[in-house]
Every structure is written in C-alpha cells, then in structure tokens.
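Lab notes, practical 5.
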Amino acid sequence: MKRLVWIGILFLLALTACDGTMREARRMVKCAGLLADTLPDSAARLIDSVLRMPVSFGERERMDMALLQAEALFGERGQEISPVMDDDFFDEHAYISTSPELERAAAYYAKKKQYAKAAHAALYSGFVQQHYDEKEAAMRSFKAAERYGKMVDDSLTVARAEYKMGSLLYNDGLKNEAQIMFRNSQRFIGDHHIERAYIENSEAVTYILMGQHDNADSCLQRGMILAEKWHSDKVIRKILNNYSVLYRLQGKYDQAVDCLHRMMANPNLGENDVFVLNLNLGNVYFDKKEMDSATKYYQFVELTLPKVNVKKETVLAAYEALYRFAEVQNDDSLALHFREMHEKGLYDLMIQRQKQTTYRIQQQFDYESLQNETNKELLRRQHIITLFAIFTIIGLAALAISLIRLAKIRKQEAIAKTNLFHFTQQNKELQQKQETTEKQMIDLSMANETNLKAFQELSQKYQEIHDTCKGYAQTLSDALNKEALIMRKLDIYLGNKGETAYLAALNEAVFEGDEHWEALMKVFDALYPNVRESLLLQYPDLTEMEQKDFILSYFNVSREDEAAMFNKSVHTVDKWRNGARKKMQKKEETRHDNS
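Output from the prediction step:
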C-alpha cells in the first residue's frame, strides 16, 4: 500500500518538473510584455530566448508571441516617425525571429474575429516582407491590414497600410496608382501631423519623377509647414533634400544650394547625413557648371565614401556622380575606376539582396527547425512520461481496487451494525406498542362494561317508553271512540255533513282566517285533550306550519290533500314533516343524553 502511495507521489513530482519549464517560459513571455514599452529590444530578445526553450506552445500562444515581438520592435513609443512609416528603420533593426509567424497570426486573429490584432499583425507582416523584397506577399498583407482596420475603425492602421501600398506601387513604377494610395492615406491619417508631412513628401517625390513640378512644390510646401509646426527635424531634412532635387531639375541652382545649406546648419546631422548633403551639393554645382565648387564637394565624398555606412543605393549614386565628374574632367583612369566601383556596387547590391532573400529563407527554416526540434524533444519526454504514467496508473488502479474492497468490507460491517441497531430499536418499539395495546385492551374492556351498563339503562328506558306508548295507544283508542261524537258536533258546527264538508272545513280553517282555525282547535282540544299543550311544551322550536302539519296528521289528512290545502308541493309538505320529525328526534336524544 505504502509503495503505491510513493509511486503516485513520484508521478506527481515528475509532472511538476515537466510543467516547470512551461511555467518559466510563460513567465518570460509575461515579462516581455511588461518590457515591450520601456525596453523593446530586451522584450524582443526575451521572445527569442523563449522560442529556443524545449516547450511546445499552442497556436494561440505562438501567435501572441509573434505579435508581441513585432509590437516591441515596430510599436510607437514617442518616435518622430512610426517605425512602420520610416523607410530607414531596417538600417538599424535587421532581424525579427517571429516574422514567419506574423502572416499566420493575422489569419489566426481574423478567424477568431479579433480584427484589431489581425490588422496590426498583417501590417507588421507586410512591413517585414517589403524589407525582404517579397512584393506580392507584402501587398497581400497590407491589403489585409487595410480591410481589418476598416472593420474596427482603426483609421491609423488603414492609413499606414495604404501608405505602404503606395510605396510598393511607386517602386514598381506605377506612379499614378501610388499617388491615389498616398492621397487615400492622408484621408485616414487623422491628427498624426508628422506622418501626414511624411506622406506629403513621398507624394512630392512621385510628382517630381512624373515631371509635375508645380504639384510637387505644393506637396513639399504643405509638408514643410506641418514639419516645422511640429518640430520634426528628420522630415524637414527629407523635404529640404527633395526641394533641392526639384530646384536642380528646374534649373534653380541657387535655391537648391540654399536648401542644402539649410540642412547643413542643422546641429543634429549625423555622419551619413553630412555625406549625402555633400553629394547633393556636388551634383547641384556640377549641373550648374561650377566645377571648382563641385570638385570641393566631390573630393569630400570620395574621401569619406569608404568610411560611411550608407545604403547601397546611395553608394551607387555617389560612384555614378564621381564617374560623370571624372569623365567631364577628362580623367579617364579615375572615371574608369569609379565606373568599376559603380559596377562592383551593383554587383554587391545584387549579392546583398540575394543574401537578404537567403537570410529570410534561412530564418524561416531555422524557425521551423527549432520548432521541429522542440517538438521532437517534447515527444521524447512525453513518451517517457506516458510510460511512467501507465505504470503509475496501474499501481494506482491496484491501490484503488484494494481501497474499494476495504471500503466495501467496512461498509458491510457498518450496515450490519446499523441493522443490529435498527433491530434493537424496532424490538423496543414493538415492546412499547405491546404495552400500549394491553393498556388499550384494558381501557376497551372498561369501556365495554360501561357501554353494557348504558345499554341496560337504555333497555330499561325503552321498556318504560314502550309501556308509555301502550298507554298512549289505549288513550288513542278511547279518543277514536269519541271521534264519532265529535264529528257529529263538527258537522253541526260547519252546517254540513260528510267527509267532503270535513275537508272543506279544514281548508277554510287554514285559508280563511284565524277564527276558523281557532274553532277547529277547540274541536281538536275536545277530541285530544292536552295534546296541543304537550306538543308546544316538549317541542317549542317547531314552526307554525310544522305545528299545523302535526295537527292535520291527527285528522288523517294525506300529503297530497295537505299540499292542495296550502297550495304547496308535496315535496314542501315532506320537508315540513321531516323537519318536525328531526326536531323531535333531536329533542329525544338530548333528553336521553341528559338522563
């Protein structure tokens, strides 16, 4: 038994140890979420660390981590320009480990109807894909971000997605379509004035390339007003640089130089910004045919070009400008050198893009490989845990069976004790009932004796009543003998003879006033002395009609005749007779009980 208990404890400890890694990973993800706003780079590195842990995350957790890392890198935290809008962002941030998951995250959140998260994931996914020159995938992601953003009224995400779509169209040479997307973006950008100025600058570039210089000037002017009002040095430098290009194309070289000198006066310029300014000044003076001034700036470009860390496109533009300048100066060897460097730069740019593509593929492969290795490790652990769990379950099952059997035995013992207790209780109850029954039998015997005495008394009273009834019968017989005499007197009193006159007299007595009834009562009292007084004395609660019915019954008047006399139904007569009988019986019963 104890061994089985220890096996269960060891199994629980093993599960706890395996679950500890998962808890640690989730704690790190939670910590990354807290650091995302203040230390975004640290948050992104924490996510990288979690992805390398031997933990199998569910789909929702992987999507949340991808979005969290993207928010840490691309989210807004007081920058002049949002990272998603900044074309120079990837010069400093070239890596995001969860980028392969971002596009899947957008589809996942959309499926779950969490469209705000889906819009952000799609926007960040398109931003990364655009950097790696995956144009079709980037355009698909930006369109998804626009659609999801409109579903939740996230106008800022819609504006940024449309701006990025305009940038893709511009890079593909579709300038008119790019113009439409830039204008749509400004409709949704709202109060983000610096980003509006940035979009105005990008729109101006398309107008410059299309040769619509007036429209370009209008865009640059609106952008400059916003940038100066909201103190965005970065946007001001970009607008001044594009002003210099516009003025150079228009032949307004002095104005172009003024714009570039305004940029040079900014104290926040970096080494790369100074390099680009000198290159642009050299180009302006070259177009202006002021070779001495152009020589000054081109020499600075030539000297600093190997030292600066600018975009490959900017390096190519510098070598092309130096090549043209050397060619005009008839320095063929130097022109050839710059031409070779320009071609080498083109080759390096092509290699860089191939490396970016390879890196992107390798990044996806590494991410998937890491997940596969993690899953393999987890499967191996799960197999060990499963085997251990099987043996533990078998031991626990045996323990459970033993405990069940023991519980059954104890239960049977408890039932036997309970039955014995109930039997004892029932025995006591039966004894008590037996004693109660014996008492009841004694009481019943006493009651029978009392009832027997009462019955004997009733029999005695019945005999007395019977003797009384015999006396009443003798009296009635005497009364009948007197009846003929009284009938004759009654005939004389009524002035008629026979039974018809008798009934008519009764009817007249009942219906023609009290005088006839009183005369009839005199005859009745003569015929049956003291009967009426005895009736009223013994049964005072009889009604007048019940008294009349009782008296008429002495004259042998039938129910039908009595009903005709009173103009009532036979049923009503029966009610009178029943009422009188019940009252007499009740009176007799009361008299008997009292005796």
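Observations recorded by the TA: The radius of gyration is 63 Å. The CA atoms of residues 79 and 106 lie 25 Å apart.
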